[in-house]
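QA checklist item 7 of 12: single-chain prediction sanity check.
[x] sequence parsed
[x] length recorded as 290
[x] structure emitted
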Amino acid sequence: MIHLLDYKAINLYFILKKGGTMKRILHTIIVASFVLTISLAKDDDDDNEEEEYSQPVEEFFIAESVYPQEQFEVQFTFAPIISSESGEEKYQYPFSVEYGITDQLQIESGFGTSLDDIGFPDKVNEFEVGLKYSFMNINEKNIHAALGFEAEIPIDEEDEEVQYSPSFILAYDFLNKYDIQIFTNIGYHIVNSEEDEETVEEDEAGEEDEEILENSFDFNSGFFISFGDVTFVNEISIQKVSSEMDSEVYLTPGIVFSTPLEIEIGVAGSIGLNDHADSFRAILSFAYEL
């Protein structure tokens, strides 16, 4: 079942092998996942070029999925994140709602929260709204794409930086006895800052302040393999890529469970692969459709 492409992946492992024990473990995970995906996908792919797509999973952990909400369908998603860096824990509690205007076009909104002294949500500090238009089974093939646009609007009076984020998603299905998909999405974040010159001068005077945002982009890629009601997802993401900001690289393997109550539950661990990323993030997601 091992193919020529698999041997190339194995060769890549030996090229990347130099480094510490943790790096070798991570490289092994990446390559093994790649080999498994290609091996399973080769079985019956040639006979399924024109099959209608299936949707075994609603949401990924980091990347945006290509799937649209069906017309008049509503989805609620809650995905708390606990991250750890140098012994310090950080908490996030994002919540979002998606609504299908048509079978291809959806509108979505969500909010983020600030935290109190013990890490629980205190108040809403930002609001997000966006659109996504999906092109499914392009040219009657198993290839899909989507265009998205989001605006992140701060509610906190101390934060006046609005972000606009266009994005592009591309995905390909291998339809055999397993549902397998590889996907990639790229998002560009445009910061519209209303910070005045007096604030900038204060920052330059040596006062410690929060990180000043600038235009950047994210790159996310990965795959999933579905075994009935259980789906294994593996993502690699590069975040905050720009001329000034230090990018963060994460590997995020996880498992998604479809329950009889129409609630999708996901559990993942996101591992920082470079010095600028959080060392570890624990992600728990819940998605419910009406």
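[x] summary fact logged: The first helix runs from residue 4 to 16.
[ ] second reviewer sign-off
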